[in-house]
Amino acid sequence: MVKLIKSAGIAHHSYFIGASGRAIVVDPRRDVEVYLDLAESWGLDITHIFETHRNEDYIIGSVELAHTTGAEIFHGENLDFAYGNPVKDGDKFQFGNIELEVLDTPGHTLESISLVLRDLSVSEDAQMAFTGDVIFAGETGRVDFYGVDRRPEMAGLLYDSLFNKILPLGDQTVLCPAHGAGSVCGADIREHDYTTVGYEKKTNHQLQVSREKFIQLKTAEELYTPPYFQKMEFYNQNGVQILGRLPYINALNPRILKNMMKDRLCILDIRKPTSFAGGHINGSLNIWREGVPAFAGWFLNYQDPIVLVDDHDHRMDEVRQSLVRLGFDNIYGYLAGGFPSWYLHAEHLDTLNLWSVHQLKEELGGDFFLLDVRKLEDHTEGYIEGSHHIYVGELPEKIGEIPQDVPVVVYCDSGYKSTTACSYLKKCGYTDLTSVLGSMTAWTNAGYPVVNE
């Protein structure tokens, strides 16, 4: 039996495999209770943990899970890991009738492996393959982590892995990738949890071109790389601190939080744009709750204590899990009673100006800097005339391109990322800022003109 465990926000997929009283976990996340609960409920002993590659977008939970269960960790031999056991192409692991075979499948990374599952009581044909970031539904892995100069080399390795190792497994083989739609590890992953070799051969255009064309396509891909990826790569090669349990977060009253603000501190306001704009703590960064997994890594650091602010301090566990998966163990606390406790204690408030798209239309051509913080491909498909483009995640490194002597008006897809951008710019000293509610979605729904490149 195979169970898919999905981690929202980072679109991470891990897998729990039960066979002959034992359990195998592939690419576990750091908060490992879900695997322990499954093992207990199914009456299994977790004995093997496999990593398909050194992951870049989250901290892998192998060390944590091994510490708890005594399981052994296995990963590709072409990287010098500080923990676990190297495996090589052709290695096989037997669990009763279930066999797992290791395939070397470099390209996304040099040490990438895939695991082929066979039920030998039924057939020697491959039943499933756990492919990591080699292939996804409708997409193949990114090849840019070793620098621009090595992209052609890595793309060639990826092509060979796909055509010499994965596709020959047979059309019947179910492919179990390490990510689903929305992951930054692929340009355009489909909304499919699973796929098959046969389906990908028919529908994945990257598998229908020559090796030369494939290398050209992959080399030309431009994908965003959040700065926290380097931290993940270090932790996932060298091991990370054992948690034992999710970090305890302190309930802080307004007086304590106010005193903490005298020192370095990150106040992370996880409310929605309208709530944040209506009133917030000065200097706070706004990333709406569901956006934390995708955008925290662009703006937070690993030193300053993080304090969470919500309206009613509900569902803090979700945010805590998301931050811990990215290595932000510096979560210190949350504002007890939520943001209402701040203003009920008569503390000072800050606000953010909001415009509707109708107001933006009326003001177009005025003396302000119009900033589009959507992804580049979205901007290319259509943008508002006169706007300047900087992706929201790249604001910290490109902030010098934004003038401080004129008002700045920010739009995105719907008004969430634009408010995040404004909150960051406020922290950096910008004072005249406006976020556009509804942003490009509302703009096009209103029938207003769009410039296409």
Automatic annotation (TrEMBL):
Note whether Metal-binding occurs among the keywords: yes
Classify the source by domain of life.
Archaea
What UniProt keywords are attached to this protein's entry?
Answer: Hydrolase, Metal-binding
**Any one GO BP annotation for this protein:** glutathione metabolic process
Molecular functions (GO terms): hydrolase activity; metal ion binding; sulfur dioxygenase activity
Q: Where is the Rhodanese domain?
A: 261-351, 364-452
Q: Which PANTHER family match?
A: PERSULFIDE DIOXYGENASE ETHE1, PERSULFIDE DIOXYGENASE ETHE1, MITOCHONDRIAL
Q: What is this protein called?
A: MBL fold metallo-hydrolase
Q: What species is this protein from?
A: Methanobacterium subterraneum
